[in-house]
Amino acid sequence: MVSRKSYLEGLSLVLREAWSRPKYRAVLILVALVSLAAAVATGLAVSHAQAAATADQASPYYMSVVGKAIGAGLAVGLAGIGGGYAVAVAGASAISAVAEKREIFGTAFLFVVLGEGIAIYGLLVAIIVAFVLPTA
After folding, report:
1. Which of 54, 85, 121, 127 sees the fewest Cβ atoms within 10 Å?
2. What average pLDDT score do residues 76-105 get?
3. Residue 120: in which H helix or E strand, if any?
4. Radius of gyration for the alpha carbons in the chain, expressed in angstroms and rounded
């Protein structure tokens, strides 16, 4: 098991190295801004749901709506992370394999595309959770 201190040291090293390169610095800033926007949007959605619950025409199921939103967000986010990791590993291996033997390009490309399927399944689950499942 990785200790918290070694995890934080590794994270600090990666962030320092990424910040020292201008291209990665722009990506870090973009990810931070998108994360901040997502956090603000989630906070606004939760506060809107709470305000609607305190109004006279309040729905008794507002926490169910918030739970569905969080579940859909987790489905897309975690599937995107998994798909990105799968494409990274399969893509690196595919490039190595194709560099050695050009005839296997189709097979290597198929494995890279299969990794992207994970993210699409996450999106489908999020759509089902958000729009198909009942709210109570």
Report:
1. 54
2. 88
3. helix 105-127
4. 21
Task: Return d(Cα 55, Cα 52) in angstroms, integer.
Answer: 5
DSSP line for 5-63 = HHHHHHHHHHHHHHHTSHHHHHHHHHHHHHHHHHHHHHHHHHHHHHHHHHSTT--TTHH
pLDDT at 1: 56
Name 91's Cβ contacts closer than 8 Å, sequence gap at least 6.
112, 115
Contact 64, 135 (CB under 8 A): yes
Q: Does residue 64 carry a pLDDT above 80?
A: no
In the three-class reduction of DSSP (H, G, I as helix; E, B as strand; rest coil), residue 136 is classed as coil
Q: Residue 52's pLDDT is what? A: 66
